[in-house]
Amino acid sequence: MMTGITGTPGTGKTSIAAELERRGHAVVRLTDTVRPYVIEEDCDRQTLVVDVDRWVEEFEPLDGFVEGHLAHLLPCDRVVVLRCRPDILRKRLLPRNYPEEKVAENVEAEALDVILIETLEEHPDEHVLEVDTTDLSVDECADRIGRFVRGELPPSYGSIDWSDYLEVGR
Ligand SMILES: Nc1ncnc2c1ncn2[C@@H]1O[C@H](COP(=O)(O)OP(=O)(O)OP(=O)(O)O)[C@@H](O)[C@H]1O
């Protein structure tokens, strides 16, 4: 079974995937797979522009976790959408020295549920788990994801409304 771990940058995909790997799961990081599909580098936004269609088409499925903010575009059997309250997400992104525009863009996308909406366009409700990492530890998030893939925790999403935090993006 292939499980995608997706979410806005800073929601914790890398940290949680590392913990899942430590627990013995196979993990593929999308940053390690997109290199051959990069069309251009947007230096101003410190972002790679990827030929997503070709990358999805040629992606080799695996039994384990796929981590990255495009993971929900793959034909995953399950998708975990990591979330983080926008004011805390801003704090997590600040040490990265991203341009302010990029921080604001990500914080706003999180407040608007962009990745969750994209995920639900690609996957049936019963395959999706939303995990709010704001007040959880990495360990607790990994536990929750482990229970979801074992079928012990039912799918769920939609309890988050961060529209009040929209101004945090600016
Ligand atoms: N419950 C949590 N789960 C994951 N990360 C957390 C949690 N609480 C705090 N953090 C912190 O938030 C940050 C998340 O960064 P991380 O690189 O894992 O995010 P990411 O979603 O992989 O970002 P990117 O898409 O840019 O790679 C880390 O500094 C981590 O220590």
From TrEMBL:
Classification via InterPro entries: Adenyl_kinase_AK6 (IPR020618), P-loop_NTPase (IPR027417)
Keyword NAD set for record: no
Q: Please provide, alphabetically and separated by semicolons, the GO molecular function terms listed in this UniProt record.
A: AMP kinase activity; ATP binding; ATP hydrolysis activity
Q: Which segments carry the region annotation LID?
A: 95-105
Q: Which residues bind ATP per the record?
A: 10, 12-15, 96
> What are the alphabetically sorted keywords of the record?
ATP-binding, Kinase, Nucleotide-binding, Ribosome biogenesis, rRNA processing, Transferase
Q: What is its EC number?
A: 2.7.4.3
Which Pfam families does the record match to this protein? AAA_18
Q: Which PANTHER family match?
A: ADENYLATE KINASE ISOENZYME 6 (PTHR12595:SF0), POS9-ACTIVATING FACTOR FAP7-RELATED (PTHR12595)
Q: Which family does it belong to?
A: Belongs to the adenylate kinase family. AK6 subfamily.
Q: What does this protein's UniProt record list under function?
A: Broad-specificity nucleoside monophosphate (NMP) kinase that catalyzes the reversible transfer of the terminal phosphate group between nucleoside triphosphates and monophosphates. Has also ATPase activity. Involved in the late maturation steps of the 30S ribosomal particles, specifically 16S rRNA maturation. While NMP activity is not required for ribosome maturation, ATPase activity is. Associates transiently with small ribosomal subunit protein uS11. ATP hydrolysis breaks the interaction with uS11.
Subunit structure and binding partners = Interacts with uS11. Not a structural component of 40S pre-ribosomes, but transiently interacts with them by binding to uS11.
Instruction: Kindly provide the name given to this protein in its UniProt entry.
Output: Putative adenylate kinase
Name the source organism. Methanoculleus submarinus
